[in-house]
Amino acid sequence: MLDNIDRTILRTIQSNGRMTNQELANRCGLSPSACFDRFKRLRDTGYIKGFTAVLDPSKLDQPLLIFVEVLLDRTSRNLFSQFSEAVRRVPEILECHMVAGGFDYLLKVRVRDMAAYRAFLADSLVEMPGVRETRTYPVLEEVKNSAELLI
């Protein structure tokens, strides 16, 4: 169970995961050793899954963000597993979510341009197990892009 100090630690590192333990302890009103112990417990129990750097996709020649609806030709545990395994092998797919509604999966894809997306669609996506239909939604403007959770 999380207490207010744990929540403060999580909120603080979520906005800046590179701060030192000393700085984190100061911001949370803890001694460095108590802060480290709490941080370690939060990490060991899975509240903290890891740390990453946020990269600029346009500087890395991947400025085009596209969301793709995927409808499978049938729904079975085996096909879901096959599709999921195939998705994990494709680097252009940043996120894949199984959803309820009029389609089966929603993908978040990053590519260089529409020509690269067309190649991805033809060479990767439609070749995945069970893909019957896709709908493509290129993003015109990223209004908000955050991974921070409300804590």
From TrEMBL:
Tagged with keyword DNA-binding: yes
Domain HTH asnC-type per the UniProt entry, residue ranges: 2-63
InterPro entries, A to Z: AsnC-type_HTH_dom, Tscrpt_reg_AsnC-like, Tscrpt_reg_AsnC/Lrp_C
Keywords annotated in UniProt: DNA-binding, Transcription, Transcription regulation
Name of protein: Lrp/AsnC ligand binding domain-containing protein
